[in-house]
Amino acid sequence: MQRAIQLALLGGVSVAPNPMVGAVIVHNNRIIGEGYHQVFGSAHAEVNAVNSVEDQSLLSESTIYVTLEPCAHFGKTPPCANLLVQKRFKRVVIGTVDPFAKVAGQGIRILQDAGIDCTIGVLETECQAVNKRFFTFHQRQRPYVILKWAQTPDGFIDADRNNNETGEIRWISSPDTQTLVHQWRAEEQAILVGWRTVLNDNPSLTVRVVSGKSPIRIIVDSQLQAPKTATVFTDGLQTIVLNTLRDDQDGAIQYVQLPDCSVENQLKALYKLNITSVFIEGGKFTLQHYINTNSWDEARVIVGTNRFGSGITAPNIGRIPTKTTTFSTDTIHTFSPS
Questions:
Q1: pLDDT tens digits, 35-48
Q2: Is 76 helix (H, G, I), strand (E, B) or coil?
Q3: How far apart are alpha carbons 65 and 1 in whole angstroms?
Q4: I need a labelling partner for 122 at 20 to 30 A (CA). Which of 94, 111, 184, 193 fits?
């Protein structure tokens, strides 16, 4: 199962909104096949593992270890539970039950009804941690929310903006940590900021300095005040604007109209858009709203070495870090809501 978990993690954000799943086939204590779900819409882990076995006659004498309950419904691919029955596996070891309503125990039932020995809950905590985004999405009907910001040692997130001035970003974190943030972006399905961040910093919100897929950009802009000349509106990449005025598509820009842009309505909209995880980078107003409504699952706060002396104070999370690490010249605090 530990090997199956390693394989599952290889899928990364490429499988979203599906879960990451790994599978290992064992015959007489020897691994004869393995696979993982690689890209959304493609073959599932069990299919890839079965197809990797050269001598298919061994499957009826084999055990398959899979991190998540085999699916029981027709989606973009046929049910994996049916495949395991068809191949007459002797035993199926399952890390954790699938919370998705169309599965949720039904895959296990198909296997057991076919007389296959099932063991459930092996390394369950670890298997659930692999798919914390997927579990949050289906159990709480919202994406997994990660908050991130950088602040100075004296507690500021940005310099003062006099008369709504804009300009170059005044960096707080080191270049190495900025690269790390791009890696964090590549691990999530979407990235969200408020319209003032677009106005002040004109960010691209992409993955530029690491390999990986850029997240879908979400801009919260109730009254459509962000400048239309901003990079997020002109570079041709996918951007979703949550607002109260428009509900249409303009090239790569999708406008999603909400009754109001409360955190609750933002998360409802992202859920309907099938977004399982969102990386929230600011600014302070947006971050504090998510903190105040307790609508987050993880927070990463980078503390740099440069002091501003004055400016816009950092969000107040009101908790003690669950973990603190040093990266380059910076300190990274990780927080949990409970």
A1: 999 999 899 999 99
A2: coil
A3: 6
A4: 184
Give the chain's end-to-end CA distance (angstroms, integer). Answer: 28
Chain segment 156-183, per-residue pLDDT in tens: 998 876 645 555 667 899 999 999 999 9
- Flag residues of the chain having pLDDT under 50: 163
Q: What is the pLDDT of residue 167?
A: 54
* One-letter amino acid for residue 128 of the chain: Q
Rounded to two decimals, the pTM is: 0.90
Whether 46 is a known active-site residue: answer yes
- Beta-bridge mates of residue 26: 31, 63
Residue-wise pLDDT for 123-148, tens only, equals 999 999 999 999 999 999 999 999 99
Coil, helix or strand for 127?
A: helix
Beta strands (DSSP E) in the chain are 22-27, 30-36, 63-68, 91-96, 117-120, 144-151, 156-158, 190-194, 216-220, 239-243, 249-250, 253-257, 277-282, 298-303, 312-313, 323-327, 330-335
Residue 103 token pair: 């599965």
Q: What is the CA radius of gyration of the chain?
A: 23
What residue spans of the chain are helical by DSSP H? Answer: 2-9, 45-51, 80-86, 106-113, 124-130, 132-140, 175-186, 195-201, 231-234, 263-272, 284-292
Name residue, tokens 């125990």.
105
Contact call for residues 152 and 307 (beta carbons, < 8 A): yes
The residue annotated as part of the active site, out of 34, 46, 69, 281, is 46
Q: How far apart are CA 173 and CA 275, in angstroms?
A: 28
